[in-house]
Amino acid sequence: MTSLTLSDLAQDPVEIRCRRCERHGRYYKATLAALEGVEPGTALPDIANAIAQARCADWSELGNKRCAVYFVELALK
Ligand SMILES: [Zn+2]
Question: Which pTM was predicted?
């Protein structure tokens, strides 16, 4: 299975939401690309994890209480 990357998203900025907390935001691709560990070929789920880890309050929660950021554009398809 091929993972989507930032270049597969039509939006810029891209809109993200968290399934667990109130976290909601828009980030320019260039901003996301500047996150630690994010390289041109980084899969979107990995980027989402990086955002949740950096921005969400509940990242330290274990299991299904943990924050999970997703890309709104993909959720609409
Ligand atoms: Zn969250």
Answer: 0.80
